[in-house]
Each structure stands twice: as structure tokens, then as C-alpha cells.
Design brief:
The protein has about 110 residues and is of the alpha+beta class. It is built from 2 helices and 6 strands; from the N terminus they run βββββαβα. This is Sugar (Pentulose or hexulose) kinase.
Amino acid sequence: MSILAYDLGASSGRVLLGRLTDSRIEVEEIHRFSNDPVKVGERLHWDMLRLYHEVQQGLLKAKHMGGNPSSLAIDSWAVDFGLIGGNGELLGSPYHYRDWHTHGVMEEV
């Protein structure tokens, strides 16, 4: 049995392949990638298309390594969000938490 774990950090991401062997969990990093924000005009956004591509790359690498993951998990900062429309598509590019829209929020709270 194997699982894939994605760790999406503020500036980089990685994919870990975990395998259960002889009642032990073995973990191997199989993919690492940049996760830089994209500046469009005066705003910072998450590069969602790049993140989607990197998730797929992790799946492909696991497959090529003989892994057939039965589970997948994604961990992120989870402070930002994207809105999904009725057709299942992303409605817009999510703002990055380092964008100016968060300036002064802690003081206001």
C-alpha cells in the first residue's frame, strides 16, 4: 500500500511517497518544485495552473516508481481560497496571502 502526500509551502512544494512495508512506514521525497506567487498588475496570485501541473507530476513520478497510491493528501497554509463555479471550474485566480489585501488585517482584528 502506498500514499502520496503533497506539502505546499509559501515558496516551494514537495511530494512524498509513503509505503507501508513490514508494519513500517517508509517515506521518500519524489518531487520538489517552486511555488512562487505571480504578480499581475499590482496583485499577487497563487499560480493554480502550475500547482495543478505539479500535482500531476507527483502522480506520474509515483506511478513510474511502481507506486499505485491508494490515498492522496495535500497540506497547505490554507489561508487563501478559490471560488468554484457550478460547472466545477475555478472562477478566478486566488489572491496570495502576501498580497496587499492582507495588510493591516491583524491590527483590525
